Amino acid sequence: DTGVSQNPRHKITKRGQNVTFRCDPISEHNRLYWYRQTLGQGPEFLTYFQNEAQLEKSRLLSDRFSAERPKGSFSTLEIQRTEQGDSAMYLCASSLALGQGSLSPLHFGNGTRLTVT
Amino acid sequence: QQPVQSPQAVILREGEDAVINCSSSKALYSVHWYRQKHGEAPVFLMILLKGGEQKGHDKISASFNEKKQQSSLYLTASQLSYSGTYFCGTAADSGYSTLTFGKGTMLLVSP
User: Fold this and answer.
1) With an 8 Å Cβ cutoff, are B30 and A108 in contact?
2) Which of A6, A36, A102, A106 to mutate to test the interface with B (most CBs of B within 10 A)?
3) Which of B3, B26, B39, B78 falls between 20 and 30 A from B106, CA-CA?
4) Under an 8 A CB cutoff, do B97 and A55 touch?
5) Is the pLDDT of residue A1 over 60?
6) Which residues contact residue A89 at a Cβ distance below 8 angstroms, ignoring those fewer than 6 apart?
C-alpha cells in the first residue's frame, strides 16, 4: 500500500491559464474523490468516480472544472481559465466501497496546492 | 448541509482531556472523524453509525447520539501527537457516497 499520490505538490499559475492535476489512488480502491480545501475550512466535495464512471459532481462546481478517470485507475482534474478564487488545496481521496459507501474510510493524498496570481 | 463543529479551537497541556462535538440539522446515518496535521493529508480515525455506537481507538473514542444528531470525539490523556485539526464528515444514508465535512476543530497540545 503506497498510499494516494498527487502531482504536482504545488502549482503557481497566472489567471486565465489552464492547469491539470493528477491523482493515483490506492490500486485496489474502486472509488476516487476530489475535494477542495481552503484555509480554515474542511474539505469541500467536488466530484467522485466509481471505477471509470463519474457518478456525482457538486452543484457548486463550475463548468471550468472537469475530471476524468480513464480505465478506472488514475484521475486528472483540469481547471480552465483559472481565477484567483480557485486558489486552494486540491485533495484526492480513494476508498474501497463495497455496498454501503458511507461506511468506507477515505484515504487522502497530500494534495496539490494551487496559487493563481 | 455542513455539520457544525465545536469548539473551534482547544489548547491543552499534555495529559489533559478534550471533547470535540459535531452536530447536524439533518438526520445522519454515519459520522467519520479525521485528523489533519499542518501541511499533511487528513487521516482517518473512525466511523460511527447511527444507533448510539461508541468506538475507541487507543485513547481516542467517539459516540453518536442519534436523537441529537450529534457525535462527540473524546481525547483522553492527550499526547503531543494529538495536535492537529479534527474534522467530522457526515453522511445522510447508508448509500450516500459523499461526505460533508465540518470546518474543523484545531487542537494544540503543549508539554
Assistant:
1) no
2) A102
3) B26
4) yes
5) no
6) A36, A37, A38, A111, A112, A113, A114
Please indicate whether, in this complex, the C-beta atoms of A102 and B91 are within 8 angstroms of each other.
yes
Q: What is the overall mean pLDDT for chain A? A: 92
* Cell numbers given for B88: 467530522
Tell whether B95 is within 8 A of chain A (Cβ). Answer: yes
pLDDT at A19 over 80: yes
Going by C-beta distance under 8 Å and a sequence separation of 6 or more, which residues neighbour residue A30? A50, A51, A72, A95, A96, A97
Mean pLDDT of A15-19: 98
Min CA distance, A102 vs chain B (Å)? 5
Q: How far apart are CA A32 and CA A80, in angstroms?
A: 21
Dist CA A33 CA A93 (whole Å): 5
pLDDT tens, position by position, B48-83: 887 766 666 678 999 998 888 899 999 999 999 999
The answer, for B1 touching chain A at a CB cutoff of 8 Å, is: no
Q: What φ, ψ does residue A104 adopt, rounded to 5°?
A: -95, 125
For residues B64 and B88, what is the distance between their CA atoms, to the nearest angstrom?
Answer: 12
pLDDT at position A2? 79
From first CA to last CA, the distance across chain B in angstroms is 37
